[in-house]
Amino acid sequence: MKHLNGSTALVTGASSGIGAEFAKQLAGKQCNLVLVARRADRLEALRDELVARHGIAVTIVVMDLALPEAPMTLFEQTERAGIQIDILVNNAGFGLFGDFDRLDFVREQEMIQLNIVTLVDLTKRYVAGMKARNYGHIIQVASTTAYQPTPLYATYGATKSFVLSYGEALNFELRDSQVNCTVVSPGITRTEFFEVSGQKFTLFHRLTIKDASEVVDIALKRMHRGGSVVTGGFNALLTFSVRFVPRKLAAMIGYLFMRNPS
Which amino acids are annotated catalytic? Predict the structure, then answer.
């Protein structure tokens, strides 16, 4: 891991789960932070913990990034405060589980806005400064669902397929600079994801689940190389092997793994 002391990272969805773990591990490397999420109490508690433990500068921004105007507002706040963002971690996102025709479309629109539109908007705004300084790292959090059609997570999986393709393409475009983009695709992770999505835990989940700390450790080790990485050996094997399976069969396998137990 290269020296990050004094750099500043912006982490979205930082109040829990993978986002909070990114904040903790980056703070441990003496990286200053801008933490963004909706829950003020959790952000305040995390800020106080990290400042006391590591003596870094932590700015919190309480904001719903699913609102269309949120990326512009966030960018303008950091610009006015004179905060230079060296590392952008686009972690904010959520999933919705269930038959597509039964899911609430307003919630699906919010999910698409957050998982795709906000991610692209923030990336476009902050990458300009990184390229001007010829230094920076962007981390996009995707999912193993990005690699195959996933019934019962049809729209969510498609948003993560977008993140994977977009991030890999962006990293190639940045190849002649000292800025890069890393796409990290976790599998089942101990977070609040399932409470939000509405899915029950299955045997497959219990056999493959990873801690958020493992996911973030892999992401940060990969950050200086760019490209994409799947966290966990078993997850990497699954996402690699799916390319040899017909798409219809891959969708059926995804359904069998994801459906709620009877």
Answer: 156
